[in-house]
Amino acid sequence: MKVIILHGLYMHSIVMQPLSHKLRQMGFNTQTITYNTVAIDDNAVFSKLDDALSSSKTNILVGHSLGGIIIKRYLASRKPTIQSISHIVTIGTPIKGASIVGRIKQLGFASILGNSPQHGLDLHEDRWEFPQRLGCIAGTLPIGARALLMMDRSIQSDGTVTVEETMIDGMTDHILTPRSHTSLIYSTFVPKQIHHFTQYHTFEH
């Protein structure tokens, strides 16, 4: 199997290398992709995904935060078969948009988000209707900008994205781990769960 990994907002593929390395140790072929997260060009990032797909192996797409939303948009655009892409795993992805984005706009800082809200970070209604199995991993350690911006400590979150925002109707499985939004990608928990999900179509609860 080949795992193709997309990073989140304000990041670069280099931050996904530790996850990529852990997955390679488990026997996966891996590739990370870089894209401009505040000047998103669908055609450019989708072409990178097209080129990364293995024609001889089954592909798994993994996205952290915004990366998971880009993957969802890619599936809607390309409509790949389950034989080509079998599983999707999102890590801290606000799969139907993030409420913190609305708050950032309200405070007058929309420019720092670039065009990412128009590419899926704005809150929107949706459900998972793709043939690929979707596994969503969410953090529950609320260390991040959310507490300062939203003042909603009672809502379970990873410090940026709420647990509820990582869920979508039609997903295959969902699992929680006590990690913050960014530390999710460096944990040993995440690659183990990716491996389990691709083997058994469920997380190891």
Strand line-up across the major sheet: 2-1-3-4-5-6
Q: So what's the CATH class?
A: Alpha Beta
Mean pLDDT: 94
Q: What is the fold named in CATH at topology level?
A: Rossmann fold
Describe the protein's architecture and organization.
It is globular, with a radius of gyration of 16 Å. It contains 6 helices and 6 strands; from the N terminus they run E-H-E-H-E-H-E-H-E-H-E-H. With 205 residues, it is an alpha/beta fold. Strands 2-1-3-4-5-6 form a 6-stranded parallel β-sheet, with helices on both faces.
What features would you highlight for this structure?
six-stranded parallel β-sheet; globular; 29% helix; Rossmann fold
Give a brief rundown of this model:
By secondary structure, the chain is an alpha/beta fold. It has helices at residues 17-25, 42-52, 66-78, 99-106, 145-150, 189-200; strands at residues 2-6, 29-33, 59-64, 85-91, 133-139, 173-177.
Give the topology, please.
Elements: E1 2-6, H1 17-25, E2 29-33, H2 42-52, E3 59-64, H3 66-78, E4 85-91, H4 99-106, E5 133-139, H5 145-150, E6 173-177, H6 189-200
Parallel strand pairs: 1-2, 1-3, 3-4, 4-5, 5-6
